[in-house]
Amino acid sequence: MNTQTNSVTGVQTRVGVRTIVQVGMLAAISVVLMLFEIPLPFAPSFYEIDFSEVPVLVGAFAMGPVAGMVIELVKILLNFVITGTDTAGVGELANFIIGCSLCVPAAMIYKKKKTRKGALTGMATGTVLMVVIGCFINAYVMLPVYAKAFGLPIEALIQMGTAVNPNITSLTSFVIFAVAPFNLLKAVLVSLVVLLIYKKISPIFKM
Q: Is residue 112 packed enough to be buried (19+ CB in 10 Å), middle (13-18) or exposed (0-12)?
Protein backbone atom coordinates (compact mmCIF):
# COMPACT_ATOMS: atom_id res chain seq x y z
CA MET A 1 0.00 0.00 0.00
CA ASN A 2 2.77 2.39 0.97
CA THR A 3 4.68 1.45 -2.18
CA GLN A 4 1.67 2.35 -4.33
CA THR A 5 1.16 5.62 -2.48
CA ASN A 6 4.81 6.55 -2.85
CA SER A 7 4.68 5.69 -6.54
CA VAL A 8 1.62 7.88 -7.14
CA THR A 9 3.18 10.71 -5.14
CA GLY A 10 6.37 10.41 -7.16
CA VAL A 11 4.48 10.59 -10.45
CA GLN A 12 2.48 13.61 -9.26
CA THR A 13 5.68 15.34 -8.20
CA ARG A 14 7.33 14.73 -11.58
CA VAL A 15 4.24 15.98 -13.40
CA GLY A 16 4.11 19.06 -11.16
CA VAL A 17 7.79 19.86 -11.73
CA ARG A 18 7.44 19.28 -15.48
CA THR A 19 4.43 21.63 -15.61
CA ILE A 20 6.30 24.36 -13.73
CA VAL A 21 9.27 24.02 -16.08
CA GLN A 22 7.04 24.14 -19.16
CA VAL A 23 5.15 27.17 -17.88
CA GLY A 24 8.41 28.98 -17.17
CA MET A 25 9.87 28.05 -20.55
CA LEU A 26 6.81 29.23 -22.49
CA ALA A 27 6.60 32.46 -20.47
CA ALA A 28 10.27 33.17 -21.19
CA ILE A 29 9.74 32.60 -24.92
CA SER A 30 6.74 34.94 -24.78
CA VAL A 31 8.85 37.68 -23.19
CA VAL A 32 11.44 37.36 -25.95
CA LEU A 33 8.74 37.51 -28.62
CA MET A 34 7.42 40.73 -27.06
CA LEU A 35 10.67 42.39 -28.14
CA PHE A 36 9.88 41.85 -31.82
CA GLU A 37 7.07 44.25 -32.63
CA ILE A 38 5.61 44.97 -36.06
CA PRO A 39 4.18 48.45 -36.78
CA LEU A 40 0.86 48.69 -38.58
CA PRO A 41 -0.11 51.16 -41.33
CA PHE A 42 -3.65 51.70 -40.02
CA ALA A 43 -2.83 52.45 -36.37
CA PRO A 44 -0.63 54.90 -34.41
CA SER A 45 2.95 53.88 -33.70
CA PHE A 46 2.18 52.77 -30.14
CA TYR A 47 0.09 49.90 -31.53
CA GLU A 48 2.51 47.23 -32.72
CA ILE A 49 1.80 43.53 -33.15
CA ASP A 50 3.91 40.87 -31.50
CA PHE A 51 3.52 37.10 -31.30
CA SER A 52 3.96 36.72 -27.54
CA GLU A 53 0.51 35.09 -27.26
CA VAL A 54 1.65 32.12 -29.40
CA PRO A 55 3.47 30.30 -26.55
CA VAL A 56 0.61 31.20 -24.21
CA LEU A 57 -1.99 29.63 -26.51
CA VAL A 58 0.23 26.60 -27.13
CA GLY A 59 0.59 26.08 -23.37
CA ALA A 60 -3.13 26.59 -22.82
CA PHE A 61 -3.94 23.94 -25.43
CA ALA A 62 -1.33 21.51 -24.07
CA MET A 63 -1.85 21.97 -20.32
CA GLY A 64 -5.27 23.56 -19.96
CA PRO A 65 -6.77 27.04 -19.60
CA VAL A 66 -5.45 27.59 -16.06
CA ALA A 67 -1.90 26.91 -17.23
CA GLY A 68 -2.46 29.35 -20.10
CA MET A 69 -3.56 32.00 -17.63
CA VAL A 70 -0.47 31.37 -15.48
CA ILE A 71 1.84 31.60 -18.51
CA GLU A 72 0.24 34.93 -19.46
CA LEU A 73 0.65 36.18 -15.89
CA VAL A 74 4.30 35.12 -15.66
CA LYS A 75 4.96 36.72 -19.06
CA ILE A 76 3.50 40.03 -17.91
CA LEU A 77 5.37 39.91 -14.58
CA LEU A 78 8.70 39.10 -16.26
CA ASN A 79 8.24 41.92 -18.75
CA PHE A 80 7.28 44.23 -15.87
CA VAL A 81 10.52 43.37 -14.04
CA ILE A 82 12.69 43.69 -17.17
CA THR A 83 11.25 46.85 -18.74
CA GLY A 84 9.35 48.49 -15.90
CA THR A 85 6.06 50.36 -16.35
CA ASP A 86 4.82 53.82 -17.23
CA THR A 87 1.28 53.14 -16.05
CA ALA A 88 1.71 51.92 -12.45
CA GLY A 89 0.83 48.41 -13.60
CA VAL A 90 -2.54 49.34 -15.10
CA GLY A 91 -1.36 48.77 -18.67
CA GLU A 92 0.13 45.41 -17.69
CA LEU A 93 -3.13 44.34 -16.03
CA ALA A 94 -5.06 45.35 -19.14
CA ASN A 95 -2.67 43.40 -21.36
CA PHE A 96 -3.09 40.35 -19.11
CA ILE A 97 -6.87 40.50 -19.42
CA ILE A 98 -6.76 40.97 -23.19
CA GLY A 99 -4.28 38.12 -23.65
CA CYS A 100 -6.37 35.80 -21.49
CA SER A 101 -9.51 36.74 -23.41
CA LEU A 102 -8.03 34.98 -26.45
CA CYS A 103 -6.20 32.04 -24.90
CA VAL A 104 -8.40 30.95 -21.99
CA PRO A 105 -11.73 30.57 -23.87
CA ALA A 106 -9.94 28.88 -26.76
CA ALA A 107 -8.34 26.37 -24.39
CA MET A 108 -11.60 25.74 -22.53
CA ILE A 109 -13.37 24.79 -25.75
CA TYR A 110 -10.41 22.74 -27.03
CA LYS A 111 -10.24 20.87 -23.71
CA LYS A 112 -13.81 19.64 -24.25
CA LYS A 113 -13.28 18.75 -27.90
CA LYS A 114 -9.66 17.97 -28.77
CA THR A 115 -10.07 18.00 -32.54
CA ARG A 116 -9.12 20.42 -35.29
CA LYS A 117 -12.71 21.64 -35.32
CA GLY A 118 -12.59 22.15 -31.56
CA ALA A 119 -9.37 24.14 -31.90
CA LEU A 120 -10.84 26.29 -34.68
CA THR A 121 -14.03 26.90 -32.72
CA GLY A 122 -12.02 27.80 -29.62
CA MET A 123 -9.74 30.19 -31.48
CA ALA A 124 -12.68 31.82 -33.29
CA THR A 125 -14.45 32.34 -29.96
CA GLY A 126 -11.27 33.71 -28.38
CA THR A 127 -10.76 36.04 -31.33
CA VAL A 128 -14.24 37.54 -30.97
CA LEU A 129 -13.78 37.99 -27.22
CA MET A 130 -10.33 39.52 -27.66
CA VAL A 131 -11.71 42.09 -30.10
CA VAL A 132 -14.68 42.99 -27.91
CA ILE A 133 -12.80 43.05 -24.59
CA GLY A 134 -9.78 44.72 -26.19
CA CYS A 135 -11.95 47.54 -27.56
CA PHE A 136 -13.65 48.09 -24.21
CA ILE A 137 -10.42 48.07 -22.19
CA ASN A 138 -8.58 50.32 -24.66
CA ALA A 139 -11.40 52.86 -24.73
CA TYR A 140 -12.04 53.04 -21.00
CA VAL A 141 -8.73 51.99 -19.43
CA MET A 142 -5.60 51.89 -21.58
CA LEU A 143 -5.98 55.03 -23.68
CA PRO A 144 -6.95 57.26 -20.73
CA VAL A 145 -4.16 55.77 -18.61
CA TYR A 146 -1.52 56.20 -21.33
CA ALA A 147 -2.68 59.77 -21.97
CA LYS A 148 -2.28 60.55 -18.27
CA ALA A 149 1.06 58.70 -18.02
CA PHE A 150 2.58 60.72 -20.87
CA GLY A 151 0.95 63.99 -19.83
CA LEU A 152 -1.17 64.26 -22.96
CA PRO A 153 -4.85 64.97 -23.47
CA ILE A 154 -6.63 61.98 -24.96
CA GLU A 155 -7.38 64.17 -27.99
CA ALA A 156 -3.66 64.11 -28.77
CA LEU A 157 -3.76 60.32 -29.03
CA ILE A 158 -6.80 60.58 -31.28
CA GLN A 159 -4.90 63.04 -33.49
CA MET A 160 -2.10 60.50 -33.80
CA GLY A 161 -4.72 58.11 -35.12
CA THR A 162 -6.05 60.76 -37.51
CA ALA A 163 -2.53 61.17 -38.92
CA VAL A 164 -2.54 57.58 -40.18
CA ASN A 165 -6.27 57.25 -40.86
CA PRO A 166 -8.44 60.33 -41.54
CA ASN A 167 -11.53 58.33 -40.53
CA ILE A 168 -10.32 58.50 -36.93
CA THR A 169 -11.84 61.66 -35.49
CA SER A 170 -13.05 60.60 -32.04
CA LEU A 171 -12.48 57.98 -29.36
CA THR A 172 -15.24 55.83 -30.85
CA SER A 173 -13.79 55.94 -34.37
CA PHE A 174 -10.32 55.32 -32.90
CA VAL A 175 -11.61 52.10 -31.38
CA ILE A 176 -13.44 51.09 -34.57
CA PHE A 177 -10.67 51.85 -37.08
CA ALA A 178 -7.52 51.17 -35.02
CA VAL A 179 -8.13 49.11 -31.88
CA ALA A 180 -10.61 46.59 -33.30
CA PRO A 181 -8.56 45.81 -36.47
CA PHE A 182 -5.40 45.60 -34.36
CA ASN A 183 -6.84 43.01 -31.98
CA LEU A 184 -8.56 41.13 -34.80
CA LEU A 185 -5.35 40.90 -36.83
CA LYS A 186 -3.28 39.87 -33.80
CA ALA A 187 -5.75 37.17 -32.74
CA VAL A 188 -6.01 35.77 -36.27
CA LEU A 189 -2.23 35.70 -36.80
CA VAL A 190 -1.57 34.10 -33.40
CA SER A 191 -4.29 31.51 -34.03
CA LEU A 192 -2.93 30.74 -37.49
CA VAL A 193 0.61 30.19 -36.19
CA VAL A 194 -0.63 27.93 -33.38
CA LEU A 195 -2.80 26.00 -35.83
CA LEU A 196 0.23 25.38 -38.02
CA ILE A 197 2.69 24.35 -35.30
CA TYR A 198 0.69 22.86 -32.42
CA LYS A 199 0.38 19.26 -33.60
CA LYS A 200 4.07 19.18 -34.47
CA ILE A 201 5.27 20.37 -31.09
CA SER A 202 2.55 19.03 -28.77
CA PRO A 203 4.39 15.70 -28.16
CA ILE A 204 7.07 17.71 -26.31
CA PHE A 205 4.56 18.47 -23.54
CA LYS A 206 3.78 14.76 -23.04
CA MET A 207 7.35 13.55 -22.60
A: exposed
